[in-house]
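Quality-control log, excerpt.
Job 1 of 2 completed; input and output follow.
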Amino acid sequence: MKFLLTSGGISNKTIEAELKMLIGKDFKGLNMLFCTTASNYEGGDMNDWLIDDLEKLKNLGFKIDICDINGISKENFLPRFEWADVFYFEGGNTQWLRSCIRNSGLEEHLLKLLKTRIWIGASAGSCVLCPTVCNSCQDLFDEYIEGFPSDGLGLVDFQFVPHLNNEYFPKINFENLEKTSKNLQEIDGKKIYIVDDNGAVSVDNKNINIISEGKWFEI
């Protein structure tokens, strides 16, 4: 399976080049399912990021179908996922996205779909792939929802933390993450990759690479 876990989307040429390598062909004319579920929970300024990401992806040449899996039937959205060459899961609330993937019925089809498709995540759309989505590091985002899932999809064997040093997330800094990551590692023992909005983690089956024009660190 192939994944591109980004913090701020396709934010620079280095990440763009890595995506092209993962796909193995030009973007022009490729079908993309753009999932807005996580963003729709947040609203507000999140819509500005979503619009910016859509414009970037359209300019790269993708043919885009915008879909929210919450509130519509699997019979409606599953053919749209099957149509797509690439999935793009936008940012927002990670627990909400995790819950919707489970409750909508999408989860039971993901392994089959991802045999021939690539998942691009932005922020929450990346974090949801990890073993857990509610932990000592993720809680620094102050997005915890009581009673919602804490487990992730577990499609990657590491934890991902986006938005390092982003002014909108003042708790996401080296000092806080170094401290809270100790608790997380004791719980699940997984490697942790932390990137700013100019970085990403590229996964090509068992090959994992950090792609960055900014700051990042791993624990």
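Job 2 of 2 completed; input and output follow.
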Amino acid sequence: MKTRTGQKLKLTTVEELLGVPATESSTEIDIDMIHVFKNHPFKVLDDEKMSDLVESIRVNGILSPVLVRPDGKDSYEMISGHRRMHAAKIVGLIMIPAIVRKMSDDEAVVYMVDSNIQREELLPSEKAFAYKMKMDAMRRQAGRPTKENVRHHVGNYETADIIGKNSGESGRQVQRYIRLTELIPELLDMVDSKRLQFTAGVEISYIDKEIQQWICEYIHENGNVKQNQIVILRQELLNGAITQSQLIDILNENAIGRIPKKKVTLSEKKLSQYFPPHYTSAEMEKVIVELLTNWKEQGGAESGF
């Protein structure tokens, strides 16, 4: 958009970008006085992007202050800026620019999640625990339902919709991510590394932890599992407890591309038409196998009869 000659431009400040009121300003804080957010769900990795951030801070310093809150113990809890603080420590900085804001525990959770959830290339596990933390915080903030607003819009689906709208995903997808928090760590790592399908991971999350461990062992020994296998396994579990051996059979029999087992049952009534009463089961089986062998040698299998 063109501006008139001599017209002054209003530049957006760092505080405005962070949504900080005009009365707040940044101050220099000793890095050692700041601790990470409790149960911070987002991983701080020493990857290529961290190397770029370190180099940027080395050359230009920290351009955007971090956001912290006082913890009542003469120190601060990091709300937004874990990667910047990590990079600053690598560079060797002692002080870091920070905006100090008083927040309740739930306000801090919501702000921490919202300030990180838009990052690119987040792992499924990061989204899973971040969405769960935010959902729990929103429920606590809403409190008990009232007569005027019975649901308070914080039932599972309503809350998930609100979270999804803020992060660009459907409420149903938010719920799927949160289900991943019910996986044992080994399986969640497989989802992160894409060794296990996201949808299969969601299905497994509804299964008992002991059986999840069996599934993990199965994947290590036999390769991956697909969603359809887990769906069938869950249906079998509705009929009662199963053994690890039975689980292996269920997963093997329902593997995509596997030829299903054929089972033929001949009743005693049918067989009695062809064998004398004194024939045992073993004797009848021997005769049947001999007849089938002759049939195969004569080309019966190829001719179709």
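Post-run check on job 2. Confidence is low (pLDDT under 50) at residues 1-18, 146-154.
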